[in-house]
Design goal:
The protein is an alpha+beta fold. It contains 4 helices and 6 strands; from the N terminus they run H-E-E-E-E-H-E-H-E-H. A hairpin with a 2-residue loop joins strand 2 and strand 3. The termini are far apart.
Length: 105
């Protein structure tokens, strides 16, 4: 079964309109209209997408081995970690799209 690697996450994140790659806290991030919608955490084999709390709850319920809330206040606001080695490309693509839509408004 094909799973998501870091470069594939980067390619999917950059494929959405108006996205630019930047960096913060020594991690690559992906921004739309100046707002971070995704981050790659290569040392941890994870990525983060910025969802609404409701979207986050749906992803975590659907696939709890892959999706989990980030720690603390960020997690309560919708920051969602993705365990890349266990993630399916289609799920990551959809989560990125939802995060992009949430941050692009």
């Amino acid at each position: 079964m094909v799973r998501v690697k870091e470069e594939q996450f980067r390619k999917l994140a950059l494929a959405l309109p108006e996205v630019v790659e930047g960096a913060h806290m020594n991690h690559p991030d992906f921004r739309v209209r100046g707002r971070i919608y995704a981050t790659l955490l290569p040392d941890a084999g994870q990525a983060m997408v910025s969802l609404t709390p409701e979207q986050q709850a749906a992803w975590v319920e659907r696939d709890p081995e892959v999706f989990e809330p980030a720690a603390g206040a960020w997690g309560r606001k919708g920051s969602t970690l993705i365990n890349l080695p266990l993630a399916k490309p289609a799920s990551v693509k959809q989560a990125l799209r939802e995060a992009w839509e949430h941050q692009a408004r």
